[in-house]
Every structure is written in structure tokens, then in C-alpha cells.
Amino acid sequence: MPPLSSILSSIKNRLSPKYAEELSVYVVYGKQPSPFPDLEHIEPIIAVVANERECFEIQEKCPETEVSWEARTVKNAEGMDVATGSILYLTHTTLLPYDEDGDGNPVFGIMESPQPTALYCSRDSAEQEAPDQYLHRVTVGEINLRGVGELLDTGH
After folding, report:
1. Can you tell me the distance from the alpha carbon of 134 to that of 131, in angstroms, rounded to the nearest whole number?
2. Residue 127 CB partners (closer than 8 Å, separation 6+)
3. Which of 35, 42, 43, 145 is deepest in the core (most CB within 10 A)?
4. Is 151 helix (H, G, I), strand (E, B) or coil?
5. For residue 10, what is the enclosing H or E element?
6. What is the DSSP string of 49-76?
7. Is residue 38 within 8 Å of residue 81, measured between CB atoms?
8. Average pLDDT score, the chain
């Protein structure tokens, strides 16, 4: 009979294509004083990065901002690699108004305590799996203290 390690290795090799390791990224938040009169502070998503080391680097670069982060799995990412410059799509269920435009209409965005629900590699996947949610396009590695990425029109 073969050694146990050989048997386990064989099983792992047969399962690997079906159960590939999930792709994760880090969503980075930056709590800071608000530039908007109706808010005491804002905590936008200031970056989406590929590894935790980059989160610590952002924390060091922005000492005046309370930086925090969470690991998130990227859905529908089989066989894909995420690196600086990759485009990902975040979905949100609720976005709050944080300001008014020149006509007095509320401006919605990700400035105050955003709560993304999922990340996707493609816009099509995000729109198919979360058709009733707001869609947010981000570039991995981009850092912006006022909120990273672009909110896309999803009919809300």
C-alpha cells in the first residue's frame, strides 16, 4: 500500500481543477473628516488591493486617515489573476446621499460607510447575479482618499 502522503497528494491533484483556491482581494476603507457640511466624517472605499501588505503600506502613507480593510472573495474568478491595474466590479445594496448637486438634488455615493455586497471580475457577471444593486467599477491598486473607482448607472 502506498504511503498516506502519496494518497493525499493524488486526491488533491484530482480535486484541484474542480476546487481551485478562491481569489481574494482587500477592500480598504479610509475614515476621515468630512468635506460635506451634513456629515461629521466619511469612510469611503479608498482602494482595492491584491494583498494585505499593500493595506499596511496605505496605512503608513495616510497617517491622518483611519485605514481599515477586509478580505473579499472575487466571484466568477476561476482561472483569473488579479494584479495592479485589473478592473473589478463591486456591488452595493444601499448608497446614501452625501451632498446636493447644483439643482438641489441628492448626490448618492460611497462616501459614508459603504457596504459592498460582492466583487466580480466582469461587469456582465455582476449585472446578472446582482441586477437590483448599484455597480461600482474599481481599478486594483488605485488609491483615492475621496473614494476610489466609478459608480456606474444601473438604473437606480
Report:
1. 8
2. 135, 154
3. 42
4. strand
5. helix 4-15
6. ESSHHHHHHHHHH-TTSEEEEEEEEEET
7. no
8. 80
- State the residue for C-alpha cell 485605514: 67
**What percent of the chain has a predicted confidence (pLDDT) above 70?**
74
CA distances (Å), origin 139, targets 49, 67, 82, 83, 119: 9, 18, 10, 9, 12
101 residue type, one letter: D
pLDDT in the model for residue 110: 60
Average pLDDT over residues 82-106: 78
Q: How far apart are CA 138 and CA 44, in angstroms?
A: 13
C-alpha cell at 138: 474599481
CB 74 within 8 A of CB 88: yes
Q: Give me the pLDDT at residue 16, please.
A: 43
Show Cβ contacts of residue 145 under 8 Å, excluding neighbours closer than 6 positions: 30, 32, 44, 46, 62, 65
Query: Given this model, what pLDDT does residue 56 score?
Result: 96
pTM: 0.77
Distances (CA, A) of 59 to 2, 29, 41, 46, 143: 50, 10, 18, 11, 11
The helix (H) or strand (E) run that includes residue 156 is none
